[in-house]
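Onboarding guide, step 5: your first structure request.
Type a short instruction followed by the sequence, for example:

Predict the 3D structure of this protein.
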Amino acid sequence: MKPTTNTNKDARKFPFVDYNYQASSLENLSGRCAKLSSSFRDISRDYFDIEDNKDFLSNAAIFIALIASALVPIAASASEMIHLVQVLPTL
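The system replies with structure tokens like these:
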């Protein structure tokens, strides 16, 4: 619940703020919503036991395709830079 403000149209002061505002209590809540794992390996093992391997393989294939498509222009520009460095001394 937000603090309430009372304003008067004729007044040129800041609005009145109710400073008796009290936030809702979180005493009955606990921070535990999942079981605790002892290691990162347990977390990843649980994840891959639940997830479908085909979904993982398709995501890996898409990732490899994206990386390969990014490497093509980088390799082409590196090749052209090497060619430029070789040609510059002859000019």
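Each response can be followed by summary notes, for example: The chain has two helices and two strands.
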